[in-house]
Amino acid sequence: MSDENKGNENKKQEQLEQFKVDDSNKKLTTNQGLKVSEDEFSLKAGERGPTLMEDFHFREKIMHFDHERIPERVVHARGSAAHGEFELYESMKPYTKANFLQTPGTKTPVFTRFSTVVGFRGSSDIVRDVRGFATKFFTEEGNYDLVANNMPVFFIQDSIKFPDIVHAIKPEPHNEIPQATGAHDTFWDWVANNQESAHQVMWLMSDRALPRSFRMMQGFGINTFRFVNDQGKAHFVKFHWVPVLGVHSFVWDEAQKVAGKDTDFNRRDLYDAIEQGNYPEYELGVQIIEEKDEFAFDFDILDATKLWPEEDVPLKIIGKLTLNRNPDNFFAETEQVAFHPGNVVPGIDFSNDPLLQGRLFSYTDTQLIRLGGPNFHELPINRPVCPFHNNQRDGYGRQTINKGKVSYRNNSLANNTPATSTAQEGGFVHYEEKMDSYKVQARSESFKDHFSQAKLFWNSMSATEKQHIIDAFSFEVGKVKSMNVRQQVVEMFSHVDLKMATAFATNVGATPPSNGGSNVTKASPALSQANTTKIPATRKVGVIMNNGFKDAEVKDILHGLQAKGIVYEVISEKQGVVTGENSVDMMVDHTFSTTDSVLYDALYIVGGSVESKAFHKDTTYFLKEAFKHYKPIGATHDGKKWLEENIMLTSPGVVVNDNNQKFVDQFTEAIAAHRHWNREVV
After folding, report:
1. Residues acting as catalytic residues
2. For the domain 451-529, what is the CATH code?
3. Scanning 131, 219, 264, 407, which has its CA 20 to 30 A from the CA of 256?
4. How far apart are CA 302 and CA 307, in angstroms?
5. pLDDT digits 0-9 by tens, 485-507
6. Does domain 536-672 have CATH number 3.40.50.300?
7. C-alpha angle 14/140/385, rounded to 5°?
8. In the CATH scheme, what is the code of domain 79-150+212-378?
9. Structural domain spans, the chain
10. Quick check: pTM over 0.90?
C-alpha cells in the first residue's frame, strides 16, 4: 500500500472532525458568535405589546427553523447510512488503472447509504420495494460513487421513461394514497402497458423486496460500465455487493406487522449492529466481459432490464466493504450526502447503456434543487479527501475562500493555472469509442425481448419462493380496483409462466389465461435465496422467561449462544428483573407490550415456576406467531410445556434438549437456516 493510501484511511474522518461541534457546557450565542442573554422571550414594545423587527436573535432563530427542511429526494427519500472502509483483495491492474483497485490491502474510506425507493422520508423501512445501496469511495484520485440497488435489473431500458415509472408507482395524485407501495391501479396499469418491466416486477414480487436487514441484502450496480487499464484496453463490467451474512428476507405477513410495530426496523438494526461492534460486511464482486464478446450472449449486455447470469459471466470477488461507524448527525451526513454515477476516477468509464446515459444528467440536476445550488460538493460529507482546484466560483453555499484574481482559462496572470493533467499524470481521459450512426429516437432490436430473463428468474426460484411470488401478485394485483388492469397484468405475465399467471388470476378474480408460457428452461441457482450463505451470527433471539426459571442452566445456554455471535433480549411480564430458582436475577429488556415476536429471528421459551394467566397467554401468542412465520423455536425445562400444548414438539426448526451444549448447537443450526419452510403451518 502506498504511503498516500495509508494516509488516506483516516483522512476522511479527520476532515469531518474539523466540522464537528459539541454544544454541551457552552454559552448560547447567535450564529455570528454573539452571546445571548435571553432566549425565552422575544423583544416587545411593552410586556403585552407587539414583537419588534429589531429583535435580530428572534429573526435569526425563526428564520433558521423555517428553513431546516430541504426537499426530500424524489426517490430514495427514506435512507440510512454508515461510514466504513473498503479493502482490496486482488489487484485489478489488468483491467483498470483506478488507483484504489491496484494494490491488495489498499484501504479506502467510504460512506454507504441504504434506502427504499418509493416511500416518502417518513414512511416505513419494511415495505415491498426496491432498496438503494449507494457507496461513496473517498479515493486519492477523487470521489467514486457506486450507485446500486438490491436488485440487478430495472423497470425501464431508457432513462426518458424514468419520470413515468416513478409517477406511476408513487401515491396516486388525486388523493396521495397509498404510501410506499405499488399495490394500486396506476402502477399496475403502467406495468401492463410497459412490458419491458416484466423482469424487474418478478424481482419485486419475490422475497428480495422484503430484506430482513440492510446487512443481509445484495447490491447491484445495474448498469454496464467499463474498466479501462493503463494500456487503454477496455472491458465491460458490472458490480455486485455480496453480504457476508447471506441474503435473507421477511415473509409478507411478518413484514406488514413489523412495519406497524417498528417503522424504523432496518434503520435501527443497522445502527445497533454497528454500535455493538457487529460490523456489516459485504464483498465486492465484478463480472467482466471482453469488448470482443459484446454480442456473444442471447441478451444485450447494455440492456438494464437484463442481468448477466453468473453461470455465463462468473463473479470475481475482489474486496470487502466494512461499515464500522455510525454518522454523528443524520441530517448533515445521511440526508445531505449526494451520489452520482458520473463521479468516477481514471480507469472507470461508461457504456452506451441508455439508462445510464440519462442518469449521468439526472443525478446532478436533482442535487441542485435538493441542496440549494452548485456547491453541494463542498458539504463535509461530500468533500473529497484529495485537494480540488478549478475556476468555479460563487453560488449558494460556497465554503471555499478562493484567493487571487484569476477564475478563468486560458490566462497569463496565474501562468494558466490551475493546469490540466495528462493521462500519465492521472488526468481523466474519456474512453475513445468509434461512433458511426444516424441520430435517431429508437431502440435497438436487441432490447425487445422482455420475458426470457423473467422466465429465467422464475425457473431459478425454489418451490417456496415461487409460492411467495404468486402470493405477492395476488396481494398487489388484488388491490387494483380496475378489473381491466387486473386482466392485462394476468395476460402479460402469462408470457412468463402460464401456471403462475393462472394461479394469481384465480386469486384476484380475473379470467385465467388460455395460452402463453415460455420455452426458456435455463435457470441460475445464484438467484435463489435458498442457496445463500447461512450464518447465525448477529441474529436476534427473544428469550421468554418468568420468575423461578432454572437460572444456572439458562445462563449457561445464553452464554453459549453469545459465543456463537447470537444476540438475545429477555422478555417478561414486567420491566426490571426476573429472578431464578437460585435467586439469580436477569434484567428484562422488554415486556410483551413493548415488543413482538416479529421483531426477532427466533424465540427461546424458558418459562419459570411462577406463572400468571397473562404470561401464559402472551407466551402462547408469541410462540404461535413465530411458528407461523417459520422461525426457529427453542425450549428447555419449564418452557417445553408450551410446545407440548401447541403440538409443536416434532416440527422442523423446533429444538428441545435439556443438555445445554447440545441445545446450543442444535438451536444455533436452526437459527442459521433462517426459516423452516418444510414446517406444516395451518
Report:
1. 76, 149
2. 1.20.1370.20
3. 219
4. 10
5. 999 999 999 999 999 999 999 99
6. no
7. 30
8. 2.40.180.10
9. 79-150+212-378, 451-529, 536-672
10. yes
